[in-house]
Amino acid sequence: MALSLYIYNQISPMSNWITQRLCLQLLSKKRAVLANCLRMASSLCHYTADWKSRVFAVDANKSLGYPDPFYFTAYDRAHQLSPAGTSPHVWPMLAQWGSAHSVSITTPHRITAARLQKSLGQQLTRGVLGSCQVLSLFSYLPHDAQGSLQKGFIILDPQNCPLIQSRLKDLLSEYKQHVLFCSYQEGTGSEVWQCLWELDRGQAKEIEISQVVRVGEPATSPFVVNIKNSAVFYSLGDACSVLQECSTIIPEAKNVLDLLENNSTTTKKGEFPVIVIEGLDATGKSTLTQSLKDSLGAVLLKSPPDCISQWRKTFDDEPSLIKRAYYALGNYIVASEIEKASRKSPVIVDRYWHSTAAYAIATEIGGSVHNLPECHHEVYQWPDDLLKPNLVILLTVCDEERMLRMHGRGMEETKEEKELESNSMFRQKVEEAYKRIGNPKCVVVDASSSKQTVLNEALSVIKKHCAI
Hints:
This protein is an alpha/beta fold. The protein folds into three domains: 2-44; 54-219, no CATH class; 228-465, 3-Layer(aba) Sandwich (Rossmann fold). The strands form two sheets. Strands 1-2-8-7-6-3-5-4 form an eight-stranded antiparallel beta barrel, surrounded by four helices. A hairpin with a 2-residue loop joins strand 7 (192-200) and strand 8 (203-215). Helix 1 (2-10) runs antiparallel to helix 2 and helix 8 packs antiparallel against helix 9. The protein contains 18 helices and 13 strands.
């Protein structure tokens, strides 16, 4: 820059104007480069300081040997959090001479972050990483878990293969503006070191190396924080805002919002009772709801309602944030239908908010039933602005009977139905989440018996709880 100024100042007023213009351009470019370098340095310092203050949470996965979430942070930060709870030499993720890598999505735009999370997850699990295991990862600042939560993945490489790290660098370079990439190695004294990398066109440069240690479970679980208004929505406005944000890239989102505008939303219902039938797939909901409709002279509704079911496949293929918002808004549209129908007759509803919440909670919380939020936790509370039914009946059958029914239906299964069929732990979590949702709570009915016996039991429960 000094050289440019010197050259420019030596040019006489009679010099060629082109020469003056070239010198001015050179000066301007050097200033721009310097400003850009300063911005990058400032951003780099911010990332480094922020990164060393973060707590990382690896999701539970019992099948891979991790029955509980695993938390770690920078060594200095650990002493600020809980000196007694730190464990510098306990690192279940790294076998002897194994390695691990983490990817965190840093973009503040939640739709972009959600879509990138889904896309990266699919790419990381397509077999390009050999025998590596991929687990869900969160990172957050302890003083602001809700506002600082970032999702990502941890990749466990028991073979410590250099090719794996190279493949990850190539893959993530495309998203370098939206992700941060770290690698982990065990030191000679069993300590674990985290290296934060800067990615650019498949190349990586070390930014910061720090020791990390295991810490105890925090008072505020990041997995539960992630559920609220990301997987389960507790107001119409919160669910609407998600589809509004993605309506330019998903035309069907605008269609759902338009339908919602044409339906009045209210928490009031008519004088006739509203009974919701819930349960896992193949527990007999469709059979019972039709039988109750005929026995009670009721109107039969379902969630998601027919008016938006045509777009269900579109939203099922979207990230959890968008998919769950779609199902949440389906409940509000059904509520409008319930309000009108309950003025004239009893109303039977095939699934409602309990299903939306139970499946979301079970999906977002890893591990087994004991990893679910405790009973009476706020995640199980009914939205204040959503119409409540008079009664919710939860149908249950044993796993063996449910499997026989699933195989006998001959229908195309959704991703969640396939998960229910293959993962008994997931089935248990969904069913337990159903039971923990309160106000109104579910009344459990064993649906293993004959259709008539189940109908009689359901009618008995309805007469006991409803004026009918």
